[in-house]
Amino acid sequence: MNCLIIEDEAPAARRLEKMIREIDPELQILGVLDSVESALRWFDSHTAPDLLLLDVQLSDGISFEILQHKKITSSIIFTTAYDEYALQAFKENSIDYLLKPIVQEELSKAIAKFKQHQGPNAAQLDKLLENLQPRTYKNRFLLKKGESLIPIQVEDIAFFHAQAKHVVLVAHSKEQFMVDETLDALEQQLNPNNFFRANRSYLVSAKSVKELRPSFNGKMKLFLEPKAPDDEVMVSRDKAPELRQWLSR
User: Fold this and answer.
1) Is residue 131 within 8 Å of 89, Cβ to Cβ?
2) N or C: more exposed end of the chain, with fewer CB within 10 A?
3) In this structure, what are the phi and psi dihedrals at residue 57, rounded to the nearest 5 degrees?
4) pTM of the model as a whole
5) For strand 51-55 and strand 75-80, is the pairing parallel, antiparallel, or unpaired?
6) How far apart are CA 82 and CA 99, in angstroms?
7) Closest C-alpha among 75, 73, 77 to residue 110
8) According to the CATH classification, is domain 2-131 in 3.30.43.10?
């Protein structure tokens, strides 16, 4: 049996290779590719591997483009960092995925499942591609200030903060606006590459992050500019790895 890794982050690719060799030394790794373009070229001149480990977000696009251009018969294990939209699509179509940072035990389970011939079939992949058409995100908000309505561009937003029954938008200019939506609703409208749900009270933009510091029990303290009402924003132990991954992209 053999596999092909498509992963644009070199440290993650090396870690995957190491874990695969430890889990199953007989599973031959055919190569490591880092982009949609290199993958399309590879499939032009190679037979499809038995197993494909496929990162969702690559340096030059979304890996689903590969599946749209090539008829791939391989079993596929998707890997992804934090795209809740993609995760929901995987769940709805009964397709396995591994959430980064990948844990060896989870990878071992996925490979064991692959060996039992339980990978997604063509119909499942077609349905997945149908559900994962490019998603559009909000570019601006029209918010009330006094008697006026003010357009606020998304790139001008520092963070959203839930206060009691209200949500406040804080701009990089330190201006504040009331928003008549929940943080959950706002999170779905904004590009996850640019905004991160730090906790139940904060949805922050990458541009607003000034500093992060380790805290107790694996938690992280997030410091924003402009300064958050709570001075520091606490990120849970479970979300801390996701936060670091988000900030390093």
Assistant:
1) yes
2) C
3) -100, 115
4) 0.52
5) parallel
6) 7
7) 77
8) no
